[in-house]
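sanity check this chain:
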Amino acid sequence: MQVYNTLTRKKEDFIPVKEGKVSIYACGPTVYNFFHIGNARPFIVFDTLRRYFEYRGYEVTFIQNFTDIDDKMIRRANEEGITVRELSERFIREYYIDADALGVRRATKNPRATEHIDDIIEIVKALLEKGHAYVTEDNDVYFSVRSFPAYGRLSGQSIDDLESGSRVDPGEQKQDPLDFALWKAQKPGEPAWESPWGLGRPGWHIECSAMSMKLLGETFDIHAGGQDLIFPHHENEIAQSEAATGKPFAKYWMHNGYINVNNQKMSKSLNNFFTVREIAAEYELEAVRLFMLSAHYRSPVNFSRELIEQAHAALSRLKTAKSRLEEAQVGPATNEDEAFVSGLAAYKKAFCEAMDDDLNTADALGTLFELARACNTFVSEPRSKEALEAGRNLFNELSGVLGLLEGSVEEEFPKEALNLVKERENARLNKDWAEADALREALKQMGYTVEDTKQGPKLKAL
C-alpha cells in the first residue's frame, strides 16, 4: 500500500514500525458541542483506513482522543453553570451517538486529555531540562520554537516566514512570537492541576503528544487529521515530541481535505454551519458516509442537499443489490454460475488496487457499484447456492471495508406507500391490470417502485 505523506509531500510505500502491526493516532473532537459535518469527514476517512488495514491482515491499534479541557470548554461550562467535566461527559455521549450512526467504529481507546496530566507534565519537564522550553514570571511554560531547527517542515514554511505573520497576545510573556504554550497557569474560575510550576492546565498541542506516545510509543506509524490541523497543531506536536525524546515522532502524516457547504467555506456567519445531529434529522447518516467516501480523501468536497440526496439514491441501489442477493432463488449449477464466481476475483483485485493507492475510496466505491450491477444481472434467474454465497460474501466483504450496509437492509417506508402496495397486489390478484398500473404510477410519484418477486412485492426507493 502507498500513502501520501504530508511530511515528505509524496506517496510512499507503507512500511509499519512493527511488522504486521499498524499504530494510528487520529485527532478527535473537543467535546463542548455536537460535532459538525467538517469533523465527520476525518472520522469517516480514518475509520475506513483502519478497516482496510485490518482487512489486509494487520493488527491495528487505533487511538482517537477527546480534548476535554480547553478555553472553549471552560467558557461554555461557565455559561451553563456546570463543571467542565459535566460538559465533557455529556458531549462524549453525544459523540458516540452520531459516530455510531455514521458507521465509525469505536477506537481501540479514546483517551481524554485530563487522564494524562502526569504524562504531560513529564514531557514538559523533559523539554525544560533540554533547553527547549522556559517558565515565565506568571508560571506559564512555553516551547522555544527556535530551539528546534526543523520547525516548519510539515507545513513547508520557514521559521522566518512564519514569524512575520505571528503575534504576541496581551498578557503573554513569550520570548518569541512563534513560541507556544505547554502549560498555562490557573486563572480565576478555571479548573487546574498541581504541577512543578504551580496550579495550571496543559496547552492544547501537548495533550496529543502525551496521549499518542503513552499509548503508541515514542515513534508510531500514522498520525491523521484534517488539513486545518497541519499548522500549528501538528507542526507543534512534532517539535515538542521530537525535542523531548530525540526520536522521530510519527512516520506518516495523513490529512483529509477541506469541506465546503454549497460551494462556500463552512462558517456560522454564513449560516451554512451544520452539525451531524442536524443533518440526521433529515437524512440517513449512512448516506453521508457514502458521500464522504465518493471523493478522494485529500480532495476538497462540496456538501449540498442535492449531493446528499444523490448519495442516498446510490445507497439505495447498493441496498437493493444486497437484498436481491439475499433473496435470490436457488437453482442448479450452470456454466454461467462458474463464470460469475471466476469473475469475482477481478472485482476484489480492482478494489484493493484502488485502496492500496493512497486510500482511493472513490475508485473502490466505483468497483463496488460495478459488482452490484453484475450481481443484479446474475440473480435475475435461479442460481446455485455456491455461486450466490460467493457473490454475497464478496459484496458484504467490500462494502464492509467501506463501512456500508453493515446493518439491516430493510427500509422504513411511509404507511401510505405500503398501503398502495397492498392495494396494487389485490388488483393484480383480481386481474385488474389498469388499477395495478395506476397504483404503480402513484408509487412512482411518491419516489418508489415496486418489484414483483416470487416472495411477493418488494418496495424500493427510486
About this structure: The longest helix spans residues 305-327. The radius of gyration is 27 Å. The chain has a mean pLDDT of 93.
